[in-house]
Amino acid sequence: MHIVAFNSSPRDSDTSKTDRILRKFLEGAQRAGATSEIIPLREYKIKFCLGDLSCWFKNPGVCVQQDDMAELLPKYGQAEMVVLATPIYFYTMNACLKNFLDRTVPIYDPSQELAEGEPIMATRYGRMPRLVTLSVAGGWLQDTFEPLSLTFNKCYGPHIVGEIYRNASEFLDLPQFQPLALEIYQAAVQAGEEVVKLGQVQPATLATLTQELAPPETMKQLEKEFWLVEGEQ
After folding, report:
1. Which of 12, 117, 153, 176 ranks highest by number of CB atoms within 10 Å?
2. How many domains does the chain have?
3. What string of DSSP letters covers 176-211?
4. Which structural domain, as residue segments, surrounds residue 217?
5. What is d(CA 16, CA 131) in angstroms, rounded to the nearest whole number?
6. Residue 118 region, left (φ>0) first, then alpha (ψ -120 to 50), else beta?
């Protein structure tokens, strides 16, 4: 199995918590026998979708715009599994990933097929890659991810085999949380193994991956202190 991960974090690998969790997940997938590659979307020039639908009707499967999507679109459409990785911005994916997904329209056929009672676009490749959605948030509330999860499931529901959402990501480096952080990273590795071997992430693994670092009052105080420090830098 070959996995293509599209990472929309604007940060580099040294500072991006999205990238850190993603790499742990792919480490596990590789242990299970998969190959993988990471596409850092911040390094690619992707124009906004024009919405003219010429890629459906005038020149099916081909966008009129000439940019880096010509390279990325086949990677997305032909992959056996795709990971969509994004930090949380305003309770959903960031603009970089949204723009990329908008530009995947050419791979879809406007004819509809039904999957579990919902209209799902058929692709020109005859199949849709299995999807894993992955996101991190600096805030400590796990329900932060609910709008993002809803969006992904409305768009890709039957094709999603795993949702990996880690809150309080900015606190994982604090010394007092290192034992828990190690458990969380190990769970991310385990999730990658399970998706390849079992076709899904097990509930116990997700429970470990999303466990709270500390009681709410402690997290509230840490969050307040964190933003004060960040504002002074």
Report:
1. 153
2. 1
3. GGHHHHHHHHHHHHHHHHHHHHHSS--HHHHHHHT-
4. 2-232
5. 21
6. beta
What is the model's pTM?
A: 0.92
User: What is the pLDDT at residue 144?
Assistant: 95
Residues of the chain with pLDDT under 70: 111-121, 228-233
Give Cα separations from 42 to 10, 13, 157 (angstroms): 6, 12, 26
pLDDT for the residue numbered 102: 96
Give 85-129 pLDDT, tens digit per residue: 999 999 999 999 999 999 999 988 876 555 555 555 677 777 789
Distance CA 190, CA 182 (A): 12
- Count of CB atoms within 10 A of residue 140's CB? 21
- What is the DSSP-derived secondary structure letter of residue 39? E
Angstrom distance (rounded) from CA 92 to CA 163: 14
Which residues does residue 211 pair with via DSSP β-bridges, in sequence order?
Answer: none
